[in-house]
Amino acid sequence: MTAEPVVHIVDDDPAVRESVAFLLSTAGFDVRAYESAEALLDRAPALEPGCIVTDIRMPAMGGLDLIAELRRRGVHRQIIVITGHGDVPLAVEAMKAGAQDFIEKPFDDETLLAAVRAALQRDSVSGERAAARAAAVARIATLSGREREVLDGLVAGMANKVIAQNLGISPRTVEIYRANVMAKMEAASLSDLVRMAILASS
Q1: Which of 138, 164, 191, 199 could make an SS bond with 171 (beta carbons 3.0 to 4.6 A apart)?
Q2: What is the rounded distance in angstroms from the CA atom of residue 55 to the CA atom of residue 58?
Q3: What global pTM score does this model have?
Q4: DSSP letters along 35-83, please?
Q5: How far is residue 105's CA from residue 112's CA, in Å, rounded to a whole number?
């Protein structure tokens, strides 16, 4: 069972933090609020799937530094940056650093809700892709050296006969290895196998 996505709100201004949390909670979102970037980072290893809404300007650690630190720790979440008037260059910098969206203050409720919905939808898709990639990598790790060589040949578009010549084995032996690879990778077809191999190497 997949846990409900959480909207993580980071803002040092209690009034803003509480009003955004109230708006999102009223709209049916599960919300966690943090008074600083450091408070969010303290939870980083166990951060629930979802998205992060962060102010760009905060004391100590701002939104840009938070994005950089999350990436450094391998924590990948959709990030929406809230910027003040005149901070568009900072917002663009944040997007280059990994933020997916930015909203300028003052913003209306629907703008924020639409941004959060879009971020959670993207996070769901990227989460599914990450899970599929992890599964493909784990399956490839179960292959023997020879099975991996056969897989590489198949992904390169080689026929069994060509793979056999390259590896110095018979086409019949390649067929056996190919069947083993298909079974271990849980691939329903050759295209399925190729797709998994490409996903694992992405």
Answers
A1: 164
A2: 7
A3: 0.66
A4: SSHHHHHHTGGGPPSEEEEEES--SSS-HHHHHHHHHHTT---EEEEEE
A5: 10
User: How many CB atoms lie under 10 A from the CB of residue 29?
Assistant: 20
Q: By C-alpha distance, which of 23, 45, 20 is closest to 33?
A: 20
141-146: which pairs have CB atoms within 8 A and are 24 or more residues apart? Answer: 142/184, 143/181, 143/184, 143/185, 146/177
Q: What are phi and psi of 32, to 5 degrees?
A: -125, 135
What the block records as the tokens of 40 is 């969010």
Q: What does each of the 202 residues of the chain score in pLDDT, given as a tens digit?
A: 346 789 999 999 999 999 999 999 999 999 999 999 999 999 888 888 889 999 999 988 999 999 999 988 888 889 999 987 667 778 888 888 888 888 888 888 999 999 999 988 887 777 777 778 888 999 999 999 999 999 999 888 888 999 999 999 999 999 999 999 999 999 888 878 888 888 888 7
Domains of the chain plus CATH, in order, are: 6-129 (3.40.50.2300), 142-200 (1.10.10.10)
